[in-house]
Design goal:
Length: about 550
């Protein structure tokens, strides 16, 4: 077995400045991209803001952080040796275990030697004459590459609320997405948590166990389902290892990148007692199983209301104070149209004497004061504030890279009314720029590892195709992009998703255009489409050679 190092890697300042590819981000996307590019004989450097690999699992170190996709499903499939060597311990892996896995992968494939850590990309400029990208960093250096590949993650640009007074707060404040590496001990402290998405819902039960008093500031209640987490048995692990490639092949053909157990009947066709019993069985299995119970739960409001009310009843049965239970019961969006949370003891936490729920729709936060949080109805004095307030999802990190394409057009201007891409892989006017799990691809609606692998392999194959054909540029055509954006919207409009004010639509960021960003058509159908396009000589893209660029990449 390869040794695992979780220690910060040294920063490597490379003397070579010209690469075939610059990859941005050393999360699961950037790591596999680098590995694949090396395998295909391309030179590459990965630029990463953190001190180590892991991406989202490097930054999100808050108490209780776990993946909501089961650990056996949330791992790379490109190396059978890797999956045989690595052993997951629990059904849902903790953040430290996933970070150890990322480091194990980096060690095994010797990835760090081509990574530049503690370096943030600040500008990315396309030079049409040379057909190259120049990528500038906050270290003042720059790299030149034929291809720029963004593995920047969908949930990596964390967002603080716009409350005044945060800087005057005398205690300590934290964002779940940028948690201190040394951890935080809340023992005996009065704590405010603002935000009740996945990060809040996972951290609240553990913070409540330490804090003397916990105030949870909730703007919108979320639906949360029990994880029913448990240790994995050696038999389960060994069985999975033996069937690994077959399981992964099947997962790649599903809608969400995970083998589920979908029931294809309508929730409205069965009698209420049967429906209740089906929900109950799936609730007991834990995780996302419940939403697979009937085919139309995410399609019609009437069907959705059956599962929504089932979950509200669970909340009422768990939370002893009926007023708190009602405040926790979501009513403003259909279940599943915001990312469902998977929790351990979340609702039960509100039965603790040291936990209070503040409904900030009724009693809004006015500002942060030096001693805590000021609301319309009074002050809450605390020693620490946890902002579990989410991310500028899907576009935030990409737009922070200062991307300028042909004729100096900025990506942020092109996307001023919302992101536009062909397949979530490329944007017209930005040749040789690829976005791994970009907006317009299944990305956040799927098992991210499956979607990352599919994109990385498609991009690597594409670069190899260009090389074989003496070409060195590829750019999405505007008409193909327009048609794809229409298709993405058309499919989303057939679902209930657009009804929620979710980060899928950018609704959590004031002023962000309201556009449904991920592709709801499912990873299986999506991958088939990508394959067909490649097989047709990259239909919808313009491939070319740049005279001045000389030899192909
Ligand atoms: O962020 P969120 P998150 N004042 O945007 C509230 C993935 N993830 O970090 O709903 C007060 O979901 C906001 O309220 P509202 C997963 O895909 C996965 O929790 O906008 N409150 C909401 O309650 C997830 O969906 C895992 O009204 C404010 C919360 O803050 C995604 O990351 C774990 C506010 C933000 O919730 C994001 O999750 C963690 C304000 N000004 C994350 N602004 C797992 O794998 C926002 N809020 C389990």
């Amino acid at each position: 077995m390869t040794a695992i190092s979780d220690a910060p890697a040294e920063i490597r300042r490379t003397s070579a400045k010209e690469f075939d590819c610059v990859v941005v981000g050393a999360g699961f996307a950037g790591m596999y991209m680098l590995h694949k590019l090396r395998e295909f004989g391309f030179s590459a450097i990965v630029v990463e803001a953190g001190t180590g690999v892991g991406g989202t699992w490097y930054w999100n170190r808050y108490p209780g952080a776990r993946c909501d996709v089961e650990s056996l499903d949330y791992q790379y499939s490109f190396s059978d040796e890797l999956q045989r060597e690595w052993n997951w311990s629990e059904r849902y892996a903790t953040q430290p275990e996933i970070l150890r896995y990322a480091n194990f992968v980096a060690d095994k494939f010797d990835l760090r030697r081509d990574m530049q850590f503690e370096t943030r990309v600040t500008s990315s400029v396309w030079d049409d004459a040379r057909a190259r990208w120049t990528v500038g960093t906050d270290r003042g250096d720059s790299h030149s590459a034929k291809f720029l590949i963004a593995g920047t993650g969908c949930l990596s640009a964390s967002r603080l609320p716009d409350y005044e007074g945060i800087d005057d707060f005398k205690g300590n404040w934290y964002h779940t997405g940028q948690w201190p590496h040394e951890g935080v001990d809340f023992t005996g402290r009065r704590v405010a948590v603002i935000g009740t998405g996945s990060s809040g819902i996972q951290s609240i039960p553990l913070i409540a166990e330490q804090a003397s008093q916990l105030f949870v500031f909730q703007r919108t209640p979320n639906f949360s389902l029990p994880a029913n987490n448990a240790a994995l048995t050696p038999e389960r692990v060994s069985d999975h290892k033996s069937n690994f490639q077959a399981i992964k092949a099947q997962a790649r053909q599903t809608a969400g990148g995970v083998i589920a157990n979908p029931n294809m009947t309508s929730a409205l066709e069965v009698d209420p007692a049967e429906r209740e019993s089906e929900f109950e069985t799936r609730w007991g299995q834990g995780g996302f199983q419940v939403i697979q119970a009937y085919a139309d739960l995410l399609v019609t409001n009437q069907a959705n209301e059956t599962i929504a009310e089932f979950v509200r009843n669970k909340i009422r049965q768990t939370v002893k104070d009926p007023k708190i239970a009602e405040a926790l019961a979501p009513r403003d969006h259909p279940l599943g149209t915001k990312r469902i949370c998977i929790d351990t003891n979340y609702y039960d936490t509100y039965n603790r004497d040291n936990v209070a729920l503040i409904n900030i729709r009724e009693n809004p936060i006015e500002r942060i004061i030096p001693t805590g949080v000021r609301t319309k109805e009074g002050d809450f004095e605390v020693d620490a504030i946890v902002f579990a307030t989410g991310f500028d999802a899907m576009t935030g990190a990409l737009l922070s890279m200062g991307i300028e394409g042909q004729a100096g057009v900025k990506l942020k201007d092109k996307w001023a009314a919302g992101p536009r891409t062909f397949l979530g892989l490329q944007a017209a006017g930005f040749p040789n720029l690829f976005t791994i799990t970009g907006p317009g691809s299944p990305s956040v609606l799927s098992n991210m590892i499956i979607s990352i692998e599919q994109h990385v392999e498609w991009i690597a194959d594409c670069l190899a195709y260009l090389r074989e054909h003496g070409l060195d540029t590829i750019e999405a055509n505007l008409d193909a992009e327009d048609a794809w954006v229409d298709h993405v919207n058309e499919l989303a409009d057939k679902t209930l998703y657009p009804q929620a004010n979710s980060w899928y639509l950018g609704a959590n960021v004031p002023g962000k255009p309201r556009v449904f960003m991920p592709y709801v058509g499912g990873v299986g159908a999506y991958a088939d489409r990508c394959r067909e396009i490649a097989a047709d000589g990259y239909e919808g893209f313009t491939l070319g050679t740049s005279a001045k660029a000389g030899a192909p990449a």
